[in-house]
Amino acid sequence: MMNIGIDVGGMTIKSGIVDENCNIIETLIISTEVEKGFEKIAQNMVDMINNLVKKAKLTLNDIDTIGVGIPGVADEKGKIYFATNLYWVDVDLGKILRDNFPSQKIYVENDATVACVAEHSFGSIKGVKNAIMLTLGTGVGGGIIINGEKYSGSNGIGSEIGHMVINRGDNFYECSCGNNGCFETYCSALAIIKYAQKLVEDEEYSGKLKGIKKEDITAKLIFEGYEEKDDLCVKVVDRFIDNLSTGIANLINIFAPEFITLGGGVSNSYNLYIDELYKKVQEKIIFKKLPFARIVKAQLGNNAGIIGAAMLK
Amino acid sequence: MMNIGIDVGGMTIKSGIVDENCNIIETLIISTEVEKGFEKIAQNMVDMINNLVKKAKLTLNDIDTIGVGIPGVADEKGKIYFATNLYWVDVDLGKILRDNFPSQKIYVENDATVACVAEHSFGSIKGVKNAIMLTLGTGVGGGIIINGEKYSGSNGIGSEIGHMVINRGDNFYECSCGNNGCFETYCSALAIIKYAQKLVEDEEYSGKLKGIKKEDITAKLIFEGYEEKDDLCVKVVDRFIDNLSTGIANLINIFAPEFITLGGGVSNSYNLYIDELYKKVQEKIIFKKLPFARIVKAQLGNNAGIIGAAMLK
């Protein structure tokens, strides 16, 4: 039997048929057409699934599960509470898929949890008993593996690790969730960029980022500047590492996992900060002399969304 | 078959034989004799177990498991890394019990996890799938139930929820773990007392706590003052509620459990702060319009330590 995995993004919807060895044997990609609204996009997804199966010269009888990763929050029945970038609020993707594919098991999950399942199926935390994934992208997403299975809480809406407050009221901007001091407002790509933009504006500074338009400052540039020892970039990245170590120490104190794996764009610079990160995590965890989680880099690239969704159960 | 549960405290060691319906059918209590050191105390525990079985007119063949709750940290084999109040460091209680009782399964766990297992076996979170227990005592202890089973991490040393940093560097005193800003430095009985002591000292104040010796200020007095609307006590308890709501919102965002149960001495005043606590938790969680965990009061009293230890597996 084979599974279908679907990765819903703001620009494209990627689908693939995945065999039991995690090989993608066929793919189909469509554009998301956000402006046409949920009903139309859901119908496009149904058509895409049928076309994908035909393209692979299979029938639906060959397909066991259909899993979907979304940039938002869904409950265990596939009802989506919201997916901000898609302008979806209270839409029932699970029901539409079940109505159209009554012989397949249907799963809908947050994309960070899907990425975590992919890493657990065949990536950096393959087969591990207990692990946490942090996706350091625009926000900070969280995925949790407990006893070898994904964990997203009683109603499927947990693992929102980016909204763990670590520093109440201390940050210069508010989190989208309404709090001030969330993990993601220190450790996402956006957080890094915002802090650099603020420093470029606020301080006497004539280094690497001087003269670059604020909106053109990227996390990649900042990490390059860190490597080149540019004062401002060092200050920004040091702050990132310091807060990342606090968040990770919290997770180790609570979960005592074997692994923490870092994904998302900011994990591309993993080699630049991992030594300092380990040092600070060890200083901050409660049991400083005992072995603690390995902090590794996620291994999977673009296809992780498809494969993770296909592995949902 | 019956189990033995042992609750090791700084003053006494309580033991009991517990049947499959969670009834304690016999007990035996000895004093802890901290000053005589680990070897002697462990021998006393072995003798206690044998005497307990005799007292109940049973033999060891009737006993399936022996579980021990300790005020400290143990791995899954019963090696205790430390139990600060007992002055135990790197002692192997599990091995001594296995050597003396080779036919019984031996479990050693942190006492907050044991309290959580007791509440899950027959108290406030009985049979719940996912739940968190916070013991608000001298420190803040944590217990975690995931998929109906206790969770304490890959090496058994997790669930240290009291050392989740929520407010980096903000507090006026350092946590014993070396960080500043840990949950327990805002929400334990000790935290409440310390803050009241500081305010009595610092401020022009002529209310309830004026003239009381600093070392005689208790959490009970402070909550009485809160009820009587004493300015200082209101300020102390408001700060406690505010930070408790941040910590609980973090846990709900991460775990999305059905229940959070509050135990320990500070939970005695649950009725005084639960309404305000719910309100603030709802303001702080990411999904403010979705149902979230019920926050309840632990139900079990003195015997929870024995029964929880007997239920370990």
TrEMBL record, chains A, B:
Organism whose genome encodes this protein: Peptoanaerobacter stomatis
PANTHER family: BIFUNCTIONAL UDP-N-ACETYLGLUCOSAMINE 2-EPIMERASE_N-ACETYLMANNOSAMINE KINASE, ROK (REPRESSOR, ORF, KINASE) FAMILY
UniProt family annotation: Belongs to the ROK (NagC/XylR) family.
Protein name (database record): ROK family protein
Lineage: Bacteria, Bacillati, Bacillota, Clostridia, Peptostreptococcales
Database matches in InterPro entries: ATPase_NBD, ROK
Pfam families recorded: ROK
